[in-house]
From TrEMBL:
It comes from Pseudomonas syringae pv. viburni. The lineage of its organism: Bacteria, Pseudomonadati, Pseudomonadota, Gammaproteobacteria, Pseudomonadales. InterPro entries: Cro/C1-type_HTH (IPR001387), Lambda_DNA-bd_dom_sf (IPR010982), LexA-like (IPR039418), LexA/Signal_pep-like_sf (IPR036286), LexA_repressor (IPR050077), Peptidase_S24_S26A/B/C (IPR015927). PROSITE patterns: HTH_CROC1. Residues 18-63 form the HTH cro/C1-type domain. Pfam families: HTH_3, Peptidase_S24. This is Repressor protein c2. One of its GO terms (molecular function) is DNA binding.
Amino acid sequence: MNRKWYEVARQVMETQEISQEEMAERMGVTPGAVGHWLNGKREPKIEVINRLLGELGLPILATSIPSSEPGMHNVAPTAQPSRFYRYPVISWVEAGGWSEAVEPYPAGYSDTFEISDYKAKGRAFWLVVRGDSMTAPAGQSIPEGMLILVDTGIEPTAGKLVIAKLPESNEATFKKLVEDAGRYFLKPLNPAYPTLPVTEDCKLIGVIRQMTMRL
């Protein structure tokens, strides 16, 4: 289930030990206003939401993807992209078993699709982030509930966020690919989790190209 933006923001504020008072000071508003936003009692403008998310190192909400789904904002941007692309939301087990089939998305492959203005270079899919291994105490952070778009047509290189499959698991894992002394590792953004070596049996499936969350 996708989480509301304020639920994600509230969790990251707790992780980074940022109080409502401190966030209010950063935003130039009252602590009460921040409290109402984080409790879902009031919905600020999209610009305000994105500013708050930026203060937490979170990706901003997409404002150019139209949706008729209840609970979703439909904000008209200044210049909309000319095309939109539809990608399936799949499970972590399905991502771990990803293969280059002739038919991109067989019938019944996924019951859920999300729209993006990003044109993938290869086959692409969405995953819903699970757990807190990519939730950082500071800086870039991708908390549980975020939607991440994976492009399998981009070469994974050091510094990119990637989806990989470890030989001992049937599920995919989400980490940052880093290089040290000529060796590659899968590094979580949360320092409480271990960094894993990229072995010959490790399969790098794709690169994260877009992140978003539902309002």
